[in-house]
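Hi all, long-time lurker, first post. I run a small reading group and we've been trying to get comfortable going from sequence to structure in the token notation. Rather than ask abstract questions, I figured I'd post a concrete chain and ask someone more experienced to write out its structure so we can walk through it together at our next meeting. Sequence below, copied exactly:
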Amino acid sequence: MNQNNLFNDENYNEIIELEFILKPFYDATLLFSQKYCNANIIISTFISLKNKLNNINLDYESIKNYKNTILEKLNNELNNYIENETILISTFLDIRFKKLSFLIRCCLIRAYKINVSYKYHIKIIKNLCIYNISKYL
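-- Answer (accepted) --
Happy to help. Here is the structure in token form:
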């Protein structure tokens, strides 16, 4: 066997760092591959991926560049999902966002009591969702 084809320690360490970056995507793929995958997990999963990637400390410049490229693409996709009212609202009406859901329900009740149109309800929810999601971006 030719010695030039074997991994050296540095190559091995780069692969380990690459694995740290790719593991959260594997986990997200398993989550999205479930039999009943709902739209309400999309935004929270993207935020979770971003947080996990941002918390990974890397030594190799090539892997850092790869991570930055992935983060940039994640931000673009996340912004697309935030623009989708259905996905945005379903995410924040999820029971896992109890405090926010309560706040949204209060605003909806208030909007209903003052006889405001459905489009205004959606606008209130969307603004609340974007405001609260921006804390995680």
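A couple of things your group might point at:
The helical segments are 9-32, 42-54, 61-83, 85-92, 98-113, 118-133.
Residues 93 and 102 are 9 Å apart (CA to CA).
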